[in-house]
Structure formats: structure tokens, C-alpha cells
Design a protein that fits this description.
Keywords: Glycosyltransferase, Pyridine nucleotide biosynthesis, Transferase. Its EC number is 2.4.2.19. InterPro entries: Aldolase_TIM (IPR013785), NadC (IPR004393), NadC/ModD (IPR027277), Nicotinate_pribotase-like_C (IPR036068), Quinolinate_PRibosylTase_N_sf (IPR037128), Quinolinate_PRibosylTrfase_C (IPR002638), Quinolinate_PRibosylTrfase_N (IPR022412). The N terminus is likely disordered. Helices cover about 40% and strands about 20% of the residues. The protein is of the alpha/beta class. It has 2 domains: about 120 residues, Quinolinate phosphoribosyl transferase, N-terminal domain (Aldehyde Oxidoreductase, domain 3, Alpha-Beta Complex), CATH 3.90.1170.20; about 140 residues, TIM Barrel (Alpha-Beta Barrel), CATH 3.20.20.70. The protein is elongated and about 75 Å long. The strands form 3 sheets. The chain has a 6-stranded parallel sheet. The chain has a 4-stranded antiparallel sheet with strand order 3-5-1-12, with helices on one face. The chain has a two-stranded antiparallel ribbon with strand order 2-4. The chain starts with 17 loop residues before the first helix and ends with a strand.
């Protein structure tokens, strides 16, 4: 990732409210503290000791998750002073100073791993998203995430996708309809599945239909489905699908997308490219806490 490149963001990303983040951080801290607290720091570090440490990037990437890191430290001890030097969305290079932490040494060491877990993981999600967003920036297409998120972390992972320049697909089963192949098979037909969905939902709920063939796409267009997911189609078929649709529906491509294949997919003219691995398998960005 080049230092000079810019992650695509349609608008500034609104931070998630602390009310949403604090339960996640508390649960992570409690998991780590167990039944006896940080017995290593409590034994080795004098109670009165104070430290001043800096969060530093060891890899290039995009920063995300600062507020969770801050909460990890300040929930362990409100006396810890947190001074951010960068903001979420910042492009990092090895050696970038992210934030300074000063206060009771025991509490800083107790919070260190939880803070770095959140910061490294969410920065990894943002960085993975940015690599694809940068690769397709010459087209109107956007990279979008899926429901393939780690349990309990969906809201913050989807936030990190936005920070990295991507967009969010539905957040859960309750905010949009996505009719997939198994729904169609059980319903008996594509038309039956769509008609049943329309009869059951409110006027504010969108319907997306997954199709595997151009014949299914033609049927979806006849039914005026507003969003169509083109699943595992090769580039010639995607181009034909875009021409066939002619702007009558939003087209989303999916299926084993990589940074290398994304530009070709985007150049077919699809509107969205759905990528599951940017949340479920993004590599952690290496960030450390240095004296």
C-alpha cells in the first residue's frame, strides 16, 4: 500500500457511540483478567510506578479502532491519560506514532493486549478494504462487506470497512431481504420467492436477489427486483449482465474476489463488489506499544 494513495470514502465516517463500544471492551478485559486479575503486572510492577508509552505502527496500512483502544486503557484506570496523535482513517507507515498513553504502569500493561487486539484487527479490516478500494478507484464500483463477520464484532468490523473506503451490505437478517439459491429451491421458483418476500415486508425494506445465470437475471429484471447479486460469474458473463440490465437494477458481483481480480470485475460495470474475507479473514495489522 503506497503512502501517497488515498482510501476511497464517500463521506467522513461517523464514529460509533461509546454506548455500543464499551460492552465489547469490558467483555474483552474481563475475559483477560479472569478470576485474579493481572497477576504478572501486580507482582512485578510497583503500585506507584508510572509509564509513558506510545502506540506505533510496524506495518503500512489504514488505522481503525482508536476508540476501543482508548476504552481498554481508561476502563482499567481512569487516571490513564490518552493522547491520540492520529485519527481513524489515517494512512500508516512503519514507525507512525498513533497515540501516547501515560499513567499508572500496572493498568497500562493490563490493558495493552486488549487494546492492541482491537486496534490491530480493525486496522487490518480497514487496510484490506483499502487495498481493494484503491485497486478499483478508477471505476465507479465500490467494495462492500458481507455478513461474514466474527461473532460479536459485526458493528465494529463494518465500521472499519467504512473507514477503509468501503460500503456496508446489510447488517443482519432483519434489515434487508436477500433471496439466495436455497430460498429459491425451497420456495419452488424464483418468482414465488420474490412474490412471497414482497407480500411479507414493509415498504422501507429492500429486496436483493442472487442469480447464477443470465436467464435468472432476465427473470429478475422482469420482476423489477431492485438489487441483483451476480454470483460467481466470469468477466464476459458479468459484462453481458451489465449490458442486459442497462441500469434497471443495482448489480453486485461476488465470488472469490481478490485484490488482483477486483479491477477486472469493476471494469465490467457492476456497481458493487461483495467481499467476505475483508472481515472474516483480514490479517492483523502489526501495531505495538513502545517505551
Amino acid at each position: 500500500m503506497e503512502k501517497s494513495s488515498t482510501a476511497r470514502q464517500a463521506a467522513p465516517v461517523t464514529p460509533l457511540p461509546q454506548l455500543m463500544l464499551e460492552p465489547l471492551v469490558r467483555a474483552a478485559l474481563l475475559e483477560d483478567l479472569g478470576r485474579a486479575g493481572d497477576i504478572t503486572s501486580n507482582a512485578v510492577v510497583p503500585q506507584e510506578a508510572r509509564s509513558r508509552l506510545t502506540l506505533v505502527a510496524r506495518q503500512a496500512g489504514v488505522l481503525a479502532g482508536l476508540e476501543l483502544a482508548r476504552l481498554a486503557f481508561t476502563l482499567c484506570d481512569p487516571a490513564i491519560v490518552w493522547q491520540p496523535l492520529l485519527a481513524d482513517g489515517a494512512r500508516l507507515v512503519p514507525g507512525s506514532a498513533i497515540a501516547q498513553i501515560e499513567g499508572p504502569a500496572r493498568a497500562i500493561l493490563t490493558a495493552e493486549r486488549t487494546a492492541l487486539n482491537f486496534l490491530g484487527h480493525l486496522s487490518g479490516v480497514a487496510s484490506a478494504t483499502a487495498r481493494i478500494a484503491d485497486a478499483i478507484a478508477h471505476t465507479p464500483a465500490r467494495v462492500t462487506c458481507t455478513r461474514k463477520t466474527l461473532p460479536g464484532l459485526r458493528a465494529v468490523q463494518k465500521y472499519a470497512v467504512r473507514v477503509g473506503g468501503g460500503s456496508n451490505h446489510r447488517f443482519g437478517l432483519d434489515d434487508a431481504v436477500l433471496i439466495k439459491d436455497n430460498h429459491i429451491a425451497i420456495a419452488g421458483s424464483l418468482r414465488t420467492a420474490v412474490e412471497r418476500a414482497r407480500a411479507a415486508i414493509g415498504h422501507m425494506v429492500q429486496i436483493e436477489l442472487e442469480v447464477d445465470t443470465l436467464d435468472q437475471l432476465r427473470e429478475a429484471l422482469e420482476l423489477k427486483v431492485p438489487i441483483v447479486l451476480l454470483d460467481n460469474m466470469d468477466l464476459p458473463t458479468l459484462r453481458e449482465a451489465v449490458g442486459l440490465t442497462d441500469g434497471r437494477a443495482v448489480l453486485e458481483a461476488s465470488g472469490r474476489v481478490t485484490v488482483e481480480t477486483a479491477p477486472g470485475i469493476a471494469e465490467t460495470g457492476v456497481d458493487q463488489i461483495a467481499v467476505g474475507w475483508i472481515t472474516h479473514s483480514a490479517a492483523v495489522l502489526d501495531i505495538g506499544l513502545d517505551a
